[in-house]
Amino acid sequence: MTERVPVPDPVPDLVPDPVPAVPAPVEGALLRAAAARLPGGVVVVTVRWRGHDQAMTATSVVSASLEPPLLLLCVHADSRLREALDDVPGWAVTVLDDGAAPQADWLSSPGRPAVDQLARVPHHRAPWSGAAWLDSGAAWFDLRTVAVHPAGDHDVVLGEVVAVREADPARGGLVHLRGRLRPVR
Predict the structure, then answer these.
(1) What is the pTM of this model?
(2) CATH of the domain at 58
(3) What's the chain's Rg over C-alpha atoms?
(4) Whose CA is closest to 41, among 139, 154, 109, 120?
């Protein structure tokens, strides 16, 4: 008589969990309201384009890498500044200080003139791009565009930092939260 060797239980079928259906897109107003609770540092992005300064207030600038030094900017695909970025090799970012709310408001106002946007805003020039650095900054970056990627109604612009300056450490910053600009120290 032959001895029977026990046979292990069969391995259950390896069936992946069902993939859930893709949900409907989130309503824009709901997304905007929720995103307004995400505090964002306030900056001004500038380019020197066709002999004129183009500038816009933004909260969508982040440090992307230290090696190599990179900043990431999200900019509306249909904006004047986005159009300018296609024609120039570089751009600049001013991290606004705690007293720069008037400049932030002015450079985010719809309908401001396309020419002489910085006529009433004290500024100096970034060393490489020649774009404007606002005097009301806590820090400044001069950047060379290295990549642009579409992202919905915005484009993601990746810039290599070619020059950076920092103001007196006593200067605070400006944060956008729930639709308001707030100074921080």
Answers:
(1) 0.86
(2) 2.30.110.10
(3) 24
(4) 139
